[in-house]
Amino acid sequence: MPTTAISAAGSAAASTATRPEDRIALHCEATSFDAASAQPLRVVALRIRGERILTGQALDLRPGVDGSAAMVGERLRRFVADRPLVGYFLDFSVAMAERLTGTPLPNERVEVSGLYYDRKVRSASKSAVDLRLDSLIRDLGLPVRAEDARGAALAAAMAWLTLTRDER
Amino acid sequence: MSDTSSGTSSSTDPAAFDFGLPPFDLLTAGEREGLASALDIGIYAKGRPLLTRDEPVDALFVVLRGSVLERHGGEVAALHGPGDRFDLAALYGAGPARGFVAAEDTVCHLIPRPALEAAARDNPAFGAAVLGAFAQRMSDLAGERSNREMAALTMARIRQAYLHPPLFVPGTASLRDAADAMKRGKASSVLVRDSGPEGERIGILTGTDLRDLVVLEGRPVDEPVGPLARYGLLTLDRDDLLFNALVLMTKHAVRRIVVTENGAVVGLLGQSDLLAVLSNHSQVIGLQVEHATDPEDLRRASLSTVELIRALHATGVKVAFIADLVTELNRRIFRKLFELLAPPDLLANSCLIVMGSEGRGEQLLKTDQDNGLILRDGYHCPDLPRIAADFSRHLVAFGYPPCPGGIMVSNPDWTRPLAAYKDAIFHWIHRPDEAAQMNLAIFYDAAAVAGDPALLDEAKGYLLGRLQDNQMFFTHFARPTLAFDTPSGLFAALFERRRAEPVDIKKAGIFPIVHGVRALALEKRMTETNTVARIWALAELGALDRKLAGDLAEAFAILSTIRLKARVDSPADGETGTELAIDNLVRLETLGKLDRDQFKDCLALVKSFKDTIAYHFRLNH
Fold first, then answer.
1. Which of A158, B222, B370, B520 lies deepest, with the highest CB count within 10 Å?
2. Number of domains comprising chain A
3. B137: pLDDT strictly greater than 50
4. Minimal CA–CA distance to B561: which of B213, B319, B206, B243?
5. Nearest to B182 by CA among B215, B201, B205
6. CATH classification for the domain delimited by B158-280, as one of 3.40.190.10, 3.10.580.10, 3.60.15.10, 3.40.50.1820
7. Per DSSP, what are the bridge partners of residue A47?
8. Is the residue at A11 inside a domain?
9. How many CA atoms lie within 13 A of B282 on its CB side?
10. Residue B243's pLDDT is what?
């Protein structure tokens, strides 16, 4: 039973015009949530540039369907380059991505559930913070449904833009 | 979870674009899918600007959630809510700049300009609804452009036309002598140098005059021409505009005028030569080449072209004219040389081709040879290796350096039967490596110069027929468009470079245009080879926005001009000055302010064209 794992969002800049401010939202769907044994099924990467999520240039690939795992990994590696990654349950997505690229991804990582937790704790809520992605989307009022890898990547990108707007 | 059907969920997906909104409801299901996949999403906190006056607008915004204030001057001009779109005017550079600010937390769909234009193209009703207001503006722009081209044409000088060498007879010569001189000189008139009592005067006697005098008036053929010639010649200086010559001829109903330089008669300009220049700028040198009888004659003609280019450039002739001229000259030289060297059966059974910039007709000065020979299948010429070697050797002597990649007739890889060319094309397309890609690119630009052009047509037909709608192939083919960095169009960046290194104008500006346009043309299976011709053909097809096409063609002309200028002005390396250095480096501090501004604008355009290409061919993945 395939599982939607977590996606991270990140931004990739065009290969010609590297924009240092770009990030990548990344999300991988895999055969399980066990990073040690899961096989990646689908990887989605979205570029975030300024306040825009470049969904029109999304990388959305299924290893074995859209090319060999190595080829998908190579395209992913080029798309991501050295840009910071953001995502929900990002460590898992990065582990899957590394399985595809065959090399460690040293990119900076930003976990949106962590950003969300920090905000909730600051607002001194007495109850435990509900970190489920669906709850996070509902609470932040994001116009997205995280029902597949693309939705999860988009949700992570939107959450990152919303949660960091005061610092940007 | 992976089996979630996006088809059924999209109707309720809060991030989905609402195609129920007019005019988007005009789109078909397929067009909706295409547009939806191209959308970006923007998320703006309350108070954040969406568009500022200084920011280039690259997308149409459609509000998904929230609202946006439009400010014009200090005033609020409009409030845009969900489903509203902006700012088409800014997208097409019309109207005063306005500012857009999120009135609350806002999410917008952004339709990138190329996607919007693709949808407008595929669906004319949608196009009319969304872009209608700008149709007029675009046709106005088209009008401006043809005026500009007309202006370029009227810039041509008499110097560019072929002048018949003046054929003088003394005033004492008989009518028969004059007719004989015309016959021998293949001329339709003679100039009469008559020494009268008040000094020497020059008149003209034409074939028509002879007919009238002898046949109609019955004058004896031994009557002297001095008193019969017409004096009061219409003359213009060699540096006068050709257009003035046309006006003068029309006004006086004559078909030729006398051309002077520093007051001395240097030749005759015929009406047909003038019209030939106005429609085809190649007459100047054509005749010299046609009359060549051995390679040495050709070599002289070839070496004189550099001076010709300098002169044309110095008299303000447009670079596009110069390129036409040089292309035509080079091709005539190649054809003549091949005809001199090759036996008739080889001529009949082969096709000499030129490739790369030579094939595109964009040669400004002599650059590396890029040529080849296609042989008819089954034909064998035992002498071929020697002929091919001679051909390449002579061209080197003419000043065309050998191709470092060996793309020349003397290399058996480029002198081979049609079937072998087809095999090579198959390989280039299906097993592309770096060399194959370059070969494919330059071969796509090939033009036939001598022999049977049907052979090249067949090879190119094969090439276009082999292409499949394989996005990976075109992505791969187009990728070199982005190979070199184009320095930012920002003046600040250029200013810093002024002191630093010069800009390689070929890599930064010309190559991206040439290759990007080539990739688009190949994708559309076009047969044009010239970059500007391709640009306009793409615009005709609707594959390229007309305004962008016009801007690109102009930028290409300007960059080519600056490049030529850089070469012509670079200090002559030799004392002879017969060859111009091949130098693509432009030193900004040597450009005038006007050129520098134009250069900056061109580079900015090239940069945005590269983005368009990257988007179109999905090169960023």
1. A158
2. 1
3. no
4. B319
5. B205
6. 3.10.580.10
7. A24, A54
8. yes
9. 16
10. 65
Q: Report CA torsion sign: B45, A151, A42, A117.
A: positive
CATH number of B467-621: 1.20.120
Strand locations in B441-504, DSSP E?
447-451, 503-504
Of the pLDDT bands very low, low, confident and very high (cuts 50, 70, 90), residue B416 is very high
Half-sphere exposure of B418 (CA within 13 A, CB side): 20
Q: How far apart are CA B289 and CA B140, in angstroms?
A: 43
- CB within 8 Å: B620 and A42: no
Q: Which of B117, B58, B93 is nearest to A17 (CA)?
A: B58
Q: How does residue B310 score in pLDDT terms, banded at 50, 70 and 90?
A: low
Please identify among residues 92-151 of chain A the ones whose CB lies closer than 8 Å to any CB of chain B: 141, 143-145, 147-148, 151
Nearest alpha carbon to residue B366 among B335, B395, B405, B408: B395
Dist. CA B160–CA B309, nearest whole Å: 10
User: CB of B326 within 8 A of CB of B286?
Assistant: no
Predicted-complex ipTM score: 0.83
Asked if the C-beta of A27 comes within 8 angstroms of chain B's C-beta atoms, the answer is: no
CATH class of the structural domain B17-150: mainly beta
Partnered with residue A87 across adjacent β-strands are A8, A111
Distance CA B618, CA B614 (A): 5
Beta strands in B455-599 (DSSP E): 503-504, 585-586
User: Whole-angstrom Cα distance, residue B399 to residue B377?
Assistant: 32
Token pair 């997208």 in the structure block, residue: B91
Say yes or no for a CB contact (<8 Å) between B4 and A148.
Answer: yes
What pLDDT sits at residue B93? 56
